[in-house]
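Worked problem 6 (solution included).
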Amino acid sequence: MPQTLTIRSLTARPVLLTLERPVVARIATITEWPLILIDLMTEEGIVGRSYLEPYTPRTMRYLVPALHDLGDLLRGHPVAPTDLYESARKSLQFVGYEGLAGIAVAGLDMAAWDALAKAADQPLCRLLGGSIGTVPAYNSNGLWLQDPAFVADEAAVLLDEGGFTALKLRLGRDRIADDLATIDGVRARVGDDVRLMVDFNQGLDLADAMDRCHRIDDAGLTWIEEPIVYDDLDGYQKLAAALKTPIQLGENFYGPRALHRALQMGACDLVMPDFMRIGGVTGWLRAAAIAGAAGVPMSTHLYPEVAAHVMRVTETAHWLEWQSWADPILRQPFAVRDGRVHIPDVPGVGIEWNEDAVAAHLVS
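Solution. The predicted structure is:
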């Protein structure tokens, strides 16, 4: 029988990694990638692990204390993810559980599920009722707002990194002609059988988005992602109604109700929640039930390790976003072959820290 676990403490360590391929988007350029490594210690000796990716190093100054506060609040509680999720969120209702507070709860939740699966001596996907297997992924490790010829060359490299059959490139250059040249150059380089997704990273206003999206609407794209600011659902409703290409939305959904509202409004055709915003594994499972009932394909955003497990139990599972940005601090990164992420047959999620790498990148 699986052990009953009790929370002893929680530690959160900030690390800062240098990106091999810097993020160059319309709204930001990012050369260093922050991660917060979470260890949920139990009285029984099992440690649940997860990490958060808060985009900017400064954000870690607020999230690390918030995580330690949650650890103090829940010391002595059983490791029951659903109960912890509710207790943590209720403790934040007066201040609101969107933003950094909700992100901290998501980090705790993912670590709790890892600990519970380890106690059951099962991979997380099996604990959730699924099976070990593979998950189709697209490579999202590059293809930023750089010269169209450079992007086309990089696309061929990214395909070979794991036998991928799908890639995501970013759009939103000053001149739409350069965006169009990038799509054409990548397509010419990788061929017609490769799926192409595009992401504007919220860089356009609605008028510009209408123009640009109409001009790429016949390019055979798998989706157009976040052309305008994420919370303009009225604008997204207009875009989704006007375009043939599916609109992808969701990495900024704070909790399952946000996903439900977007679907009710017809603001998107596809959804791709982010684990630190949707509420970790617990939030994902609740959101997946909504997407499944609506018949809407559901993809992941970042966190490929935990993403692979939950996609095995998601009714409308679509694509896993593959980004290997956390690999330098992992003891054994997940394998990608033939465009599919392979889940290791080990208890829990399969995340263990490379402590030498962690020490080398720790933020004091």
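Discussion: The longest strand covers residues 7-24.
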